[in-house]
Structures are given as structure tokens and as C-alpha cells.
């Protein structure tokens, strides 16, 4: 068994759960002595610290007048092959079957050095599939030709088997969080800076404002809560639904209680002033934001969708509600927010739950085990 490995990582470098998971994984693996090569179109946004073990190889997209579209996928495969040979990579860990696993397979065929491909599915592959069945075969190919495939929840694993009928063993490796960075801080000044009164409870929602996040339901739930207690809603993130949700808050007559904060970096600081998190999505393979919140002592209410019930323990550190049921969500929220003892218990249990099940130290080890195992055959 080799102690330290050379690992290539490809993900979408922009803001998003999969990009965060891939980048944090690379950073943690580097801390454990592995050499990490990010092969991405841009610098991953969480790659902020310098490490002698981390390298960034940018996929250059030439603009050739004869091509109608810049060939990102081919440029990526080409760069992957180059780095596999140049750095003698042991593992190429790609996030998303399409296009990244497919590019990795092409790169492996082109390269002279042998590399193992590990593919992590984050769910959006299946969402894309739902929209365009013509991709089915390509996604299936990406999965079946990978040496190891992982999903971020048991639910996504089952969904992948059902939708794609793949003939591959899939391992579940949950999203993770570093509880050294994510913990509840005493941020009274931040509350004051946002004009939050002492008696007000703070609800929070963080997402990329896509339709699947159902922010409409978050606003409807908040309206019902705010009718019974002084409260503020912090909406963090940006995306296609942003303007529409601004207008909806106006129409619902709750605009003065809803703070649209846009994209934010220091999520743990904002979570530290929150009392309850709402994630009422119609699709969610895991919900990384849930464990970010729980690590900061924020109980969560989520829908019984995708991997969410694998993250929140109903009636213990939060609640699970049916999709599109703002009535149940508001009832549970009021139960919790009006009972300080219960809230303290749920908050403590949320922190413990994350430390026990989703802490970096546990999950990164699982990935290391997978890498070592797939290399054993060589
Ligand atoms: O949630 C999004 O829209 C972003 C998306 C992504 O591809 O980055 O997140 C997916 O991957 C995350 C990391 O594994 C999961 O925590 C999210 O649940 C998942 N999103 C969906 O399934 C909608």
C-alpha cells in the first residue's frame, strides 16, 4: 500500500455544493500528505490557501474562429491526459458523470501512464437526465467505465440504479464539513448590524436560487411563522429566482422582514446568528447547507426529498416535512422557536450529529480507503 498518492481532481470550480466538496476534499487530502492536482476551467473558489502539495492546472479554452462553440470537454480531456502522464497520477477523481467522467475516460485512453478513475455523482446528472433523455447512454457510459463510482446519499444511489439501470457497484460517501471551521460563534454585533431586534427569531435559507430550491415555499412558511412571532428571514445566495422572490416577498407583505443578502463568503458567521434553517427543495441529493447549519448549532427543517431525510433526524435535530407543505413547516418551526429548552436540545443534538456522521475526519478517510482499494489490483 502506498502511503501518499498523486490525485487529480476535476469539478466545476464555481460556487456550488459539488465544487465545495471537491475542493475541500483536495485541501484535506493535501493536509494528509497526498499530492493534489486540480484540473479545472478556473481556480476553485475555495482554494484560497497556499500548500506545497496543491497544484492548479487550468483548462485553456482557445477561441478558434472555425468552431461555433469552444470545445471545453475536449480541452479538459486533453489537459487531463497531459497531467496524468506528466505527474504520474494514481487517481483521477472527477465530480459529475457528465461531462467529467466521460472526459476522464477519454484522457485515460490517451495517456500512457495508468490511472484509476473515481467518479462522484452529486445528483445533477440525474436532474439533467430528467430533462434530456438523449444523455442517458452517455451518463451510463461515464459511470460504467469508471473504476469506482460514489454517490453523496443512499437515495441518489438508488435513483441512479433505477434511472440508468447501471451495472456497477456504487458506494455512498456523504458530504462532509470541517467542524474546526464551522461552529457557533457569538455574533451579537452582526445581529445588530443587520438591524435584528433582540426579541426576533432568525430563519435562514442558503441556495443558488434555482427553481428546484422552492424559495416560494420558504417565503410562504416564513409568512406563517412571522404572523405568530417577531422574526426575520435571511436569504443568502443568488440565481435565476432572485428577482422573482424579491417581488414575491413584496406581494406577501413580508418584505421588511426578509433580508436578501446575495452571495456571501463567511457562511458560518451568518449561520451563527440563525435559529432555524429551511431547505424545502423538490430535488436535493444531500443538502450540504444542512450540515453547515447543523455544525453551527442551527436545527433544520427539510423536505422528505432525495437525501435530506438521511441528514436531518426528524424530531431529534430538526424536522422533515412533505414537499409543498408550508403549513407543516411553519407548525414545526413555531413548536421549536417557542420552546427555548427544546431549541437548545435540538441545537446541541444537531452539532453532535454532524460531528458523529459528517465530520471531515470521518469522510475523507472513506475516500482514502476507496483510493487505496482500487489501486490494490495493480
Ligand atoms: O444544489 C445545487 O443546485 C448545486 C449542486 C452541485 O452540483 O453543486 O449540489 C448538488 O451537490 C451537492 C454536493 O454533493 C449536494 O449537497 C446537493 O444536494 C446537490 N444538489 C441537488 O441535488 C439539487
What does the model show?
44% of the residues lie in helices and 17% in strands. The protein is globular, with a radius of gyration of 22 Å. The strands form 2 sheets. Strands 3-2-1-4-5-6-7 form a 7-stranded parallel β-sheet, sandwiched between helices. It folds into 2 domains: 6-176 and 359-376, Rossmann fold (3-Layer(aba) Sandwich), CATH 3.40.50.2000; 188-357, Glycogen Phosphorylase B (Rossmann fold, 3-Layer(aba) Sandwich). It has helices at 17-31, 72-87, 97-110, 124-131, 136-144, 154-164, 188-193, 215-226, 242-251, 267-271, 288-295, 308-311, 326-337, 340-357, 360-376; strands spanning 6-10, 35-40, 54-58, 91-95, 116-121, 148-151, 170-172, 201-206, 231-236, 258-262, 276-279, 300-303, 318-321. The model has no long low-confidence stretch (mean pLDDT 95). The chain is α/β, with parallel strands linked by helices and 378 residues long. It contains 15 helices and 13 strands. The site of ligand GMT has 19 residues, from α1. Ligand GMT binds at residues 16-19, 21, 122-124, 152, 175, 208, 210, 212, 283-288.
